[in-house]
Design brief:
Length: about 110
């Protein structure tokens, strides 16, 4: 029976996919806890854009490369990256709906 080996790019794709998935799940949970200042929430949203999205993109690219070499971790990383991108788009849509209050007009700032 032949021993299966995993490529380095497959492992990196898998790890980036897991980390990005954890972050995209944990960031809204932390924000929903309600104990953050508005500035901290802005930092969290930038963190999501600057860390999660590039991590998922790199996981997809490396997943394609590892898949060509027959690495299962690369396929898992590829799938995780695609799921993260879909979740990211959904979160942007939900944020837009909440922000614009479904009426198309941004909410008025408190006076």
């Amino acid at each position: 029976m032949e021993e299966k080996t995993h490529t380095t790019i497959g492992k990196v794709s898998f790890i980036l996919g897991i980390i990005s998935l954890l972050l995209i799940i944990l960031i809204p949970i932390i924000a929903a806890a309600g104990k953050l200042t508005p500035d901290a929430m802005i930092v969290l949203s930038y963190f999501e854009y600057l860390i999660v999205l590039p991590g998922a993109t790199i996981a997809i690219i490396l997943g394609f490369m590892a898949r060509k070499q027959g690495d299962k971790y690369g396929v898992i990383g590829l799938v995780l990256g695609l799921v993260i991108i879909i979740l990211f788009i959904i979160s942007i849509v939900i944020s837009g709906i909440i922000y614009f209050d479904v009426s198309g007009v941004p909410p008025k700032p408190p006076t």
